[in-house]
Amino acid sequence: MAILGYKEYFKGIGEIKFEGKDSDNPLAFKYYNPEQVVAGKTMREHFKFSIAYWHTFCGQGGDPFGPGTQSFEWDKASDPIQAAKDKADAAFEFIGKMGFDYFCFHDYDLIQEASTFAESEKRLVTITEYIKEKKAASGVKLLWGTANCFSNPRYMNGAATNPDFDVLSRAGGQVKLALDATMALDGENYVFWGGREGYMSLLNTDMGRELDHMGQFLVMARDYARAQGFKGNFFIEPKPMEPMKHQYDFDSATAIGFLKEYGLEKDFKINIEVNHATLAQHTFQHEIATAAKAGMLGSLDANRGDYQNGWDTDQFPNNIQETTEAMLVFLKAGGLQGGGVNFDAKIRRNSTDMEDVFLAHIGGADTFARALLTADKIITSSAYDDLRTKRYSSFDAGKGKDFEAGKLTLEDLYKVAQENGELELKSGKQELFENIINQYI
Amino acid sequence: MAILGYKEYFKGIGEIKFEGKDSDNPLAFKYYNPEQVVAGKTMREHFKFSIAYWHTFCGQGGDPFGPGTQSFEWDKASDPIQAAKDKADAAFEFIGKMGFDYFCFHDYDLIQEASTFAESEKRLVTITEYIKEKKAASGVKLLWGTANCFSNPRYMNGAATNPDFDVLSRAGGQVKLALDATMALDGENYVFWGGREGYMSLLNTDMGRELDHMGQFLVMARDYARAQGFKGNFFIEPKPMEPMKHQYDFDSATAIGFLKEYGLEKDFKINIEVNHATLAQHTFQHEIATAAKAGMLGSLDANRGDYQNGWDTDQFPNNIQETTEAMLVFLKAGGLQGGGVNFDAKIRRNSTDMEDVFLAHIGGADTFARALLTADKIITSSAYDDLRTKRYSSFDAGKGKDFEAGKLTLEDLYKVAQENGELELKSGKQELFENIINQYI
Amino acid sequence: MAILGYKEYFKGIGEIKFEGKDSDNPLAFKYYNPEQVVAGKTMREHFKFSIAYWHTFCGQGGDPFGPGTQSFEWDKASDPIQAAKDKADAAFEFIGKMGFDYFCFHDYDLIQEASTFAESEKRLVTITEYIKEKKAASGVKLLWGTANCFSNPRYMNGAATNPDFDVLSRAGGQVKLALDATMALDGENYVFWGGREGYMSLLNTDMGRELDHMGQFLVMARDYARAQGFKGNFFIEPKPMEPMKHQYDFDSATAIGFLKEYGLEKDFKINIEVNHATLAQHTFQHEIATAAKAGMLGSLDANRGDYQNGWDTDQFPNNIQETTEAMLVFLKAGGLQGGGVNFDAKIRRNSTDMEDVFLAHIGGADTFARALLTADKIITSSAYDDLRTKRYSSFDAGKGKDFEAGKLTLEDLYKVAQENGELELKSGKQELFENIINQYI
Amino acid sequence: MAILGYKEYFKGIGEIKFEGKDSDNPLAFKYYNPEQVVAGKTMREHFKFSIAYWHTFCGQGGDPFGPGTQSFEWDKASDPIQAAKDKADAAFEFIGKMGFDYFCFHDYDLIQEASTFAESEKRLVTITEYIKEKKAASGVKLLWGTANCFSNPRYMNGAATNPDFDVLSRAGGQVKLALDATMALDGENYVFWGGREGYMSLLNTDMGRELDHMGQFLVMARDYARAQGFKGNFFIEPKPMEPMKHQYDFDSATAIGFLKEYGLEKDFKINIEVNHATLAQHTFQHEIATAAKAGMLGSLDANRGDYQNGWDTDQFPNNIQETTEAMLVFLKAGGLQGGGVNFDAKIRRNSTDMEDVFLAHIGGADTFARALLTADKIITSSAYDDLRTKRYSSFDAGKGKDFEAGKLTLEDLYKVAQENGELELKSGKQELFENIINQYI
Lengths: 441, 441, 441, 441
Ligand SMILES: [Co+2]
Ligand SMILES: [Co+2]
Ligand SMILES: [Co+2]
Ligand SMILES: [Co+2]
Ligand SMILES: [Co+2]
Ligand SMILES: [Co+2]
Ligand SMILES: [Co+2]
Ligand SMILES: [Co+2]
Prior knowledge:
4 copies of one chain form a homotetramer. Chain A is of the alpha/beta class.
């Protein structure tokens, strides 16, 4: 239910309802039916759709070639605390109208950072209190919190990986406050996206030392939160580049290796963003499979990139095939561990109507819902799963099984090779698999 | 010294000598002076330059749009064993004339694979014996051997990651023979480049199961070789894509994580190829730094890619700046662990003169030698090293040092942040660093 | 109807029928219904689906990392003329079973090139005669012919742009024969894809001179064919890179500019390949729109690339959204001028079942058919077209119309600006447009 | 000579002098010796180095992930006219200290745009007067002016290609004022970089209509300026993407074709930016060669991109090999037509020392100077030019010459092919060419 503050920000737009795929109402869900059960859970439970505070309530459409185009009512107050409360009102109104259950934030999305650390802390406490009330009134929950340790100029050379210990300490202080806020708001998880943790030039960088600092920093953050009683997951959100030429958390495999290196693999999981996956030359589904294989499939940042524009475009998800293939892996992996599907996406700079952000979230939710329905049907009704399983059946018994169990030596394989003689080729049937997917879309 | 067989293949070309940078002789080294000492070692020791048997003696300039253009005398014999011996003669003549000390091979570079496994084994034994003699006569050594488990159609769905246990076994048998040949030739190392270990489509692939198979397979190969008394290093050579859409050994970070996952990190190190690094959106120097940080900087495959052509072009190294930056990291890391610099590079399809392959190797060796000289001068004579070290000096004492030692908590950082107040910005001086590099080139 | 030769090559596979989207028969069309009328024409007429002789009957799955995996019955004859006839038999059997009307070829797809020019000419005449009979018997037509002036080593430095006049002349002779064969077979069009027309290194290249040669060469080819009575279109097929680092016919805009430069724009149109479009960082639909704007939308090479593997993967089309957007532009442009939709696509190297090539073509045809149906519905039933037209309505009357007619000066605009004052922002509604497309898929 | 205003902004930094390559002074030129004659002209004349007002005096290091880090004294005044004058003072001080002769600007680089068109016009007139005086006092000249028709939200859907005639008119008014300012300041050229002329989504775009509008708009701008007596060149600066998904002026070939389409080729030339070239998958040298071939090599925007970060990083030039190859083409083309070498480059976000921008320009100027010296030496002293010329010598006489003169038919080529028989392969010698370049660096 949409909770309004003292004014309604999205006038003329009511709660978005599911109307089915034959509806021509642009302000209705065509596939996302929250209570519909698919593969044993409601869509609501599968996805835990979340709004990204930064894009939806803070972003204004600016880009490197011009300032923002989207001017919001909730930014009008000159007092930063009032402005923050207005923004929270708008946020809870929007989330309620969308019918979603979750939001995610960076500390200084909630309220503008002040000119001193002490004052910033005060502001955060104030707005946290206010949002606590909004949460209670609305039932909306916090999927995860995080700290923005990359926008402020002080972090221009990194935060946890800054060559200057004082800057690292400042980041530490800020993360403490963000953890406090997340815990105060019953956040289910806490995310680290390595904003400027990486390098612009390797020439001036001691990468080994910086990585050790980052590991140490995360250990300290984890220990602090656990000591305060935080039971949620920590997530790392990989990204290969931008803003830094090279970001340390390049992709899931890199982040998983890093977490294990520093003994963090029990507490941390991966938050996979579609556009970050594709910037790393992986697919979304590849990253999901990689995290799932490691038992670390934590959460998803739903969006899409433009394969031809080499930066993080953070467009709303609308790629039906990509999302269907992702949902196949998602369902096989048993879903997410603690996280949800957060729309880390922004409307285009020239989308300046108030309704545009609703349309965008509707399109995104429908893309995921449709993909889930399709993937479920492929798994339950088509030859797909069986075809795939049979490809590996030689490992389900006999010597193949022994191999998997570690019972064979290289010389055993040599003997098998000698006995077998030349082998028949077995088609990979890729075109058949692809046709099956498209048949069900 | 160049050892000839019964005929001279590279007539008219003698041993390549160092003549210095003022020489206009295209068939002389201008920077590579094998016995010149740089940073405590001769260039010969630093680099251990190696010829890649496959490109230099097997490749004929074919590409997906046409067959080979380079027709070699040593391929004329119709008997495969004679042809293999002729090729070995040509190889040792070439290596000797270049004045290099090493070569690298895949099993079926040495001799054409036969139509049966048993016959292939016999051929390998025969050619290994022959090359043993050439080695003894010339003093040329084997940097590393490997098995080509990707060209034969039987491996079209992978070798160690093939969904069919019989194909995996065949690969196991082949790797056994390649290990035997490598050991017979006193190979200093053994390489795994994951030819078709990866997937063309995730739709028909069980990635988790395939990765487990690959881990198991490497464990068995290591155990076999160690049992036979092999003391050298195993290397994994990462590559992100091609031939498969996704290769499992994507980059150094991924391979290092994989090796640790399967308990292989003591025996394996990384063999970094320049063009594979850049295809993975890393720089050569980044990959060196990553492997060095993990204590796994094993060997280098020297070549270069074309940043604008998204496949492995394997051109000869000629990028002065890229190689200089790499040599900076190389020197700081203390060089390679067991490996050397192997020219995994091929002349262009339209380079059809016999001298072209000499020119190419000369250009490559000079690029590395010049880069080493420049990097050494930058480290010993310029402000570079000092500037870089000072950036991190706040961690060399006081609380910064305590942080590195794991003695601080997040709350300690919070207190530092409170006390510090707002911080001055410290320039990263990237342009200064870059100017210094160029000043010394 | 499928015409068999003396034997049936694709045994067990009959003619592929339309069975509709609820069919689970992998060997049936689900969307492609040849006689179904969409937007005033049958699907058969819209598409003129064509088989690419090279991929489907010559390609064997080889790649830079291994030889072919697909072994064909029709390649078994040792006599090149018999092998060519067998291949033609297989081709016409396949085309007939697919129910398509067209094929395309390169000269030496039809028959293996001989060791002399004279003998090659004889072979071409022989096979042309044979195919003429197959055409007559089957009703299958020739969409276009072309000459392969890139595979033979003699063309390693280019054909029409070779620095050596003798090689250029040889290409000229070959093109004459290919034109003769195309005309003998009533080819409706003739294509130039600039195989190795470009450069590997600009260092050894006089680009200006090479471009002039290419222009002159095309002028001569056109003049010859017209003099022989050829009434069809000439097409240029752009591609940005591969095999050469830079191909001269980079994209449609470049090719159109080139054609105009050399006075060829009346006789030539553009043949757009999907994967070439995306390698050039354009979309398929962008290239269609570019050619259509110039009145040069000639023909389409249907396939798809992998956005993450930077070479021409030539996969079969299966991207529903990409093709739908392309069909929107296609329908608005009034379709193709003279050409058709040629499946310039190959099954994956590991697709080794005889049925795989049928499955692949079925998937491709269904993707285009479904996209056409969807695009037609979007145009006729949704708000799409109207929304798009209204965005430009200010140019349909008043000063906007005067501007388009060239009746205003810059000072007139200045006055309008002065009078208007500040303007309201008008949303581009991208998310709404995208949602509409997905609603109709 | 550096002209100061009422205060000195770059205190402690004097005029940058040439000290030669053995100097360790970071604030001295090591290669750029303005009065040194190379290939018949002084370096000063060859390059006409220019400062980009926007990056050097307006940019503050902001990026999509955080606001500016560089805080400038000259931005402190609250009155926009005073601030603009202070910035002009700083600019002329900087240009003078660098010893450069030129600058380039966008209209609203010079002074902040006001809230109304009329007030903006007044501001522009005021600052133009002020700069006129600075120019007179310093001797610094205006290489080119341009209008920023992309930052203001009103241009979010394009300027000349906006779907709304009112926005197009506003752009027209703005371009008139920018032309007036350029002419008032004796600008030698005027540039159009198509900021948001392109599309974010083809779905909502009528590309043909937009291109016609852009052509019409440029015709009107040219006619206006010519009528006012402007004798300089107009330039188009191509860029393939960013900010729009697709920019209409994709690359030089596209822009040249566009200019000819609308009859603009006599008045317009091309301004090539390095980073725009590489984003379009071309090299800098390719774009220079393309423009030179069309007789349209107008001007250069000197910078460099990061081949691995797919956006316009606008780093300062430091790539020695890339620039050397570019200077080879530059010298062969006879240099620039009317333009110069403008440093369209910005220091990194974390380069926050006042000296950094000097270091950056010094590094850039030295890179070009060194490249020019090297290229000249290659042309005059090495085998390079002769090797390249001889590759084409078969077209300098006999039938090759007849071919170039258009005297042969396709049948003539056919006869040559018949007579020639099979041809010898001629090596392209790419590795030799590359080695020669590196020998001279
Ligand atoms: Co994200
Ligand atoms: Co993102
Ligand atoms: Co390699
Ligand atoms: Co390679
Ligand atoms: Co094609
Ligand atoms: Co293709
Ligand atoms: Co520029
Ligand atoms: Co730029």
